[in-house]
Amino acid sequence: MRKALKQYAQVSPYLVVGLALTLAFVLYPMAKGMYISFFHYNVIKPETSESAGLSNFKHVFTDPMIGTALRNSLLMAIVTVPGQWIAGIVLALLIQMKTVRLKVFWRLIYYVPVISSWIVVSYLFRFLFADGHEGMINYLLVDILHLIGEPIGWLQNTGTANLVVWLVSIWKGAGWVMVLYLAALQSIPRSLYEAAEIDGARPAAAFLNITLPLVRPLTAYVIINLVNGAIQAFIQVYAITQGGPMDSTQLLNTYLYKQAFQYFDFGYASAISVCLGVLIFALTYTQQRSIGRDRIEF
Amino acid sequence: MKKLETTLVHLLLVIGIIVVIGPFAYMVLTSLTTDNYSLPSPQKLMTDTKTLGNFAQAWGKNHFQLYFRNSIVVTGFTLLFSLTLSSCMAYAFARFEFPGKEKLFRLFVFTLFVPAIINIIPQFTILKSLRLVDSYSGLILLYVGSGLVGSTFFLRGFFERIPRELEESIVIDGGGRFTIFRSIYIPLSLPALGTLAIFSFQGTWDEFVVALTVMKSEAHRTLPIALQLFRGQYVSFYGLFFAASIIALIPTIIVFLVFQKQFVKANLSDGSLKN
C-alpha cells in the first residue's frame, strides 16, 4: 500500500495533467455517449430526456437506411484497405530498389496527398469528376483517350459516386502506407536478401518469405489503422456526394452525423455510433492480437 | 536486361507521379484562371492567360487573413501542449511502475477504436460548463485532450526502445528522473517527436467538425470553416476557392519540409506497437 502510494506520487507529475484532459475530453464523453444511446436525448434541455430503453438499438436493426450505410461502410473497407495497402507497398518496394535514384524526391512527392487537407482534396475530386465535358476526368476519357463515347455523370449514380469516394481515399492514403514500409524495409539487413539470392530465390519469393514476415507487426498496425480510417471515413462523403444520390452513398458515420446534427436525434445517433465501435473492434480484433505477439528482433 | 528493368521501374514511378500530382496541377491551373462563373473547361485551362488575381482576391476577402491567423494560433498552441503532455505521459507509461498501469493503458488504446464523431456532443457540454465555448482556449483544450491518447501510444514504444543503460551516467551524476527524461529520452526521440509534430499539425490545421461546433462567432473561425464558407458564398467562383485552398495548404507543406528530415529517420516498424 505504502509502496503503491509512493509509486503514484513519483509518476503523477508526468501523468496527472494529461490524464485529467483525457478523462474530460475522451473517456467521459465516450461513457456519456453510450449513456445517451439509451435515451430520447434532448440537447436543449438534457434533464427532460426520456428513457428509451433499447428502442434506439432496435431502431438500428430495423432502419432500412442502416442496411445501405452498412453496405457502403463495409465496401469502403473492402475496397480502400487493400487498395491503399497494395499501392503503398508497391511504391515502397519500387523506391527501395537498389537501382532507383532520387529516393528522397519520390518519397516526398508521393507523400504530398497525405499531408493535404481532406476538405480541399475532397472538393478537388468533386470538380475533377464533374458532369459533362467540363469535368477533367470526362474530358480525358472522352475527348483525349476516346475510351468512352459519352461523358459519365459520376456523382449521379450510386456505383460511380462510390467509386469517386474510394478513389480519393486510396489516392490520399497510399503515401502513408508507403512511408511506413519504406522505413521498415530500410531496417531489414541486406545480408538476408543476399543469402536468398545466393540460394537462387526469385525476388517475389524473397518478398513473400523474408520481407513480409519481418514486417508483420507493422502490417498489423497499418491494417488496423486503415480499417479504422475506412469505417470512420467522413469528409470524403460529406464533401463529395453529401450522401447522395438519394442517400445511397451514406456511410454509417455520415448517416449518424445527419441523425445527430440535422434531425437532432442524438440518442439514435449515439446508438449507431456504439454499434459502429463494436464493428470496428470486431474487424480489427485478429490484427490487434497479433500486434502484441510477434516482435521480431534481427 | 538490368538496364531495361531500371528504366521500367522509373517509368512506373513517373506514371504514379502523374496520378498523384495531376489533381494538384489541375487545382493550380484553375486557381490561375479568371473566368469564375462556371467550371473552366479543360481547353480553357490550357490556353487562357494566367493571373494571380484570384490569390490576391482570396487573401483580401472575408477576413481570410484573420482566419489564417486564428488557425496558426490554435494549431501552434495545440502542437506545443500536446507534444509536451504526450511525451510526459509516454515516459510515465514507459519507465514508471505503478498499480493499474497496463489496465489504464489498455483502456486508452480501446478509446482509439471508438468512433470519435459522437463524442462531440458531450465534449461540447463540458466546454459549456467550463464557460469555454467559442474561445480559443476551449478549442485548444479539446484538441489537446482528444489527441493525447494516440500520441502517447505512439511515443511509448519509442521510449521503451531506448536502452536503460543510458540512464546510468545521469544517475551517477546525481540526476533525477526529470533530468533523465530531459537529457536522454527527449533528444533520442526527436525523430519520433518530429513525426508526431507533422501528424499533429496536419490533424489540427485540417480539423473541421469540432471547430464548426465549438466556435460560434465569425471572428473566431479557423481556416477549414472559412474555406467551407468560401464555397457557400462564391459557389461558382472555382478559381477563387482553389486559390484560397492553396494558400491554406502552404503552412502544412512548410511544416512537412521542415520536419521531414526527422520523419525519415523515425522507424515505425516495431517497438511503437506494444500493448
Automatic annotation (TrEMBL), chain A:
InterPro entries (UniProt xref): ABC_transporter_permease, MetI-like, MetI-like_sf
Domain ABC transmembrane type-1: 70-287
Predominant place of localization: membrane
Xref: Gene3D superfamilies: MetI-like
Subcellular location: Cell membrane
Any GO CC annotation of this UniProt entry: plasma membrane
Transmembrane segments: 12-31, 74-96, 108-129, 163-184, 218-240, 260-285
Signal peptide (UniProt feature, chain positions): none
Keyword Transport: yes
Alphabetic keyword roster: Cell membrane, Membrane, Transmembrane, Transmembrane helix, Transport
Pfam families, per the entry: BPD_transp_1 (PF00528)
Family per record: Belongs to the binding-protein-dependent transport system permease family.
UniProt protein name: Sugar ABC transporter permease
TrEMBL record, chain B:
Keyword terms of this UniProt record: Cell membrane, Membrane, Transmembrane, Transmembrane helix, Transport
Membrane protein topology class: Multi-pass membrane protein
Residues in ABC transmembrane type-1 domain copies: 68-259
Top-level division of the source organism's lineage: Bacteria
Localization of this protein: Cell membrane
GO biological process: transmembrane transport
Regions that span the bilayer: 7-29, 72-92, 104-124, 136-159, 180-201, 237-259
Name recorded for this polypeptide: Carbohydrate ABC transporter permease
Metal-binding as UniProt keyword: no
